[in-house]
Design a protein that fits this description.
Layout: H1 2-16, H2 23-30, H3 39-59, H4 71-106, H5 113-130, H6 132-154, H7 160-185, H8 191-224
Length: about 220
C-alpha cells in the first residue's frame, strides 16, 4: 500500500509540474499576476532549450559515416545533454518552491519587537534559500555551454547554427539567473554570505559570456563567410 501511495504521489507531482504544461500555458502563467514562475524558472527553460539544440546538433551526426571518428563522443554528448535538460527543467518547480517561503515570511506579523525579530530572521533565511536554485541553474548552464561547444565542434555541420543559438540561450539564461541572485543579496543582512553568493554569480556570468560568445562568434564567422 505504501508503495502504491508513493507512486501516486510521484504521478501527482508530475501532473502538477509547471513543465508538464503546454508552452502556451506556461507563458500565460509567466505573464500573469502570480510571482511564480518568474525569472529563475524562465532562465531554466531557456537553458533547457539551449541544451536541447546542442543535443540535436550531436544527434544529427550519430550513425553518419562522415562523423565516424566521433561516434562514441557524440553518443555520450547526447546522453549528458539529455540529463542536463532534465535537471534544468526540474529547476523550474524547485525555483518556485524555494521562493514561496520568502513570500510567506513577508506576510508574518511585525506588531511587536519579538514578532519583528522573528519576521526578519524568517526573511533572511528564506532569502538565502531563494538564491540556491538560481545559482544551481547557472552551474548547469556552464555545463551545458561546454557540451554545446563540443557538439558544435564534433556534431553535424548542417546544424552548427543551432548549436550557436543554443549557446546564446544558455548564456542569456546565466545572466537571467544571476539577476535573481543579485536582487536577493542586496537585502540580505548577512553581508558575508551575500558577498559570497555575488562572487559566485559574478564568476559564472563572466565565464558564461566568454563561452557563449566564443561559440557564437566561431559559428557566425563560418556561416557568414
Amino acid at each position: 500500500m505504501a508503495e502504491h501511495t508513493a507512486e501516486a504521489r510521484t504521478e501527482g507531482q508530475k501532473q502538477t509540474s509547471m513543465t508538464c504544461q503546454s508552452v502556451r500555458e506556461f507563458t500565460g502563467k509567466l505573464a500573469g499576476k502570480d510571482p511564480v514562475p518568474g525569472g529563475g524558472g524562465a532562465a531554466a527553460v531557456a537553458a533547457a532549450l539551449g541544451a536541447a539544440l546542442g543535443s540535436m546538433t550531436a544527434n544529427l551526426a550519430v550513425g553518419k559515416k562522415r562523423y565516424a571518428d566521433h561516434q562514441e563522443e557524440l553518443t555520450k554528448l547526447t546522453q549528458q545533454l539529455s540529463e542536463l535538460i532534465d535537471q534544468l527543467l526540474s529547476c523550474v518547480d524547485k525555483d518556485a518552491e524555494n521562493f514561496l517561503p520568502l513570500l510567506e515570511a513577508y506576510k508574518l506579523p511585525h506588531g511587536t519587537s519579538e514578532e519583528t525579530q522573528k519576521k526578519d530572521a524568517a526573511i533572511e533565511a528564506a532569502t538565502q534559500m531563494a538564491n540556491e536554485v538560481p545559482l544551481s541553474i547557472m552551474r548547469l548552464c556552464l555545463q551545458a555551454l561546454n557540451l554545446i561547444g563540443e557538439a558544435e565542434e564534433k556534431g553535424s555541420r548542417m546544424a552548427i547554427s543551432d548549436a550557436a543559438a543554443g549557446a546564446r540561450l544558455a548564456g542569456a539564461a546565466i545572466d537571467a539567473a544571476a539577476l535573481n541572485v543579485y536582487i536577493n543579496t542586496r537585502s540580505m543582512k548577512d553581508r558575508e554570505k551575500a558577498q559570497e553568493q555575488q562572487r559566485q554569480a559574478d564568476e559564472m556570468t563572466s565565464l558564461g559570456a566568454e563561452l557563449s560568445d566564443a561559440i557564437y562568434r566561431k559559428v557566425l564567422n563560418e556561416i557568414r563567410g
